[in-house]
Amino acid sequence: MEVRHPRIPTWGYQVLLATVAAIWGGSFIVLKGALGQMTPGWLLTLRFALSTLVMVALFWRRLAANLDWSHVLAGLLIGIPEGLAFLVQNVGLDGTTPGRNAFLTTTYCVMVPFLNWAVTRHRPHANNVVGALLCLAGVGFLSLDGSMGLYLGRGDLLTLVSAVLFALNIVAVGRVGSAHDAVTMTIVMFAVSSLICLGYSLAVEPTPNFATLTPDFWAQMAYVVLLSSVAALLIQNVAQQHVQPAKAALLLSLESVFAVLFSVTLYGEALTPQLAVGFALIFVAVLVSEIWVGRRAASEIESHEVPARD
Question: What's this model's pTM, rounded to 2 decimal places?
């Protein structure tokens, strides 16, 4: 007898993406602490390698049943921009604050509708454009220094490069995700990301001394492996099969809101008026994307939904 899984409505997948954003928002603080004991490349190599092992241990039967060349190719398409994005972002985090890093990463929500247009010829709607412009305005306020001049340091600029790569990853997931098993694709993505970071680490960074790592470091790694990597990215790859790429990008951009809350309360980052305005603009951008949707956009969302995969 066939077992039918309950159908999750579209808004349920949107809530899951917002939950992912909260988990990622906390990871900025956690990673900032971990970077005090290990360089960015080796930290990410360890993160993605452990995530791959955890996923294989949990889902080895599913991996064996679904892994083929099509899934390997899909994993490469999403894993290459994902691995590079995290690598560049974490190198940038070493030269800026968690709040600024999070806000600047969020600019991928500006890029996704237009990159998706280039790939699928699906034109952005007015709400996508307005939401993206509001998000960009928020980043503009973030870049204001104390004299109200514009300033972005090296860490900030690297973070903007990572935003482009994250946008490419989101478009790629939206393009190939619905035709592949999300778990298998995520495992391949983790493995590819780990290899990318390993290559960078071997070429650029000194080999870490694992004997000197403290219990705090391993607790931080548990957070980024089990929550930020395994749980969050798996949820993202599943939920994005049911949510349009532009809307998914703006929901995931809520990570900057959570990151600033954590950065102010836990890291001691000052909540300046400019930062508060940027915070508000990005939050409004998400509301615009979620509430101001015309009939044409709503009908297209329904027509693009696909059944949940086992």
Answer: 0.76
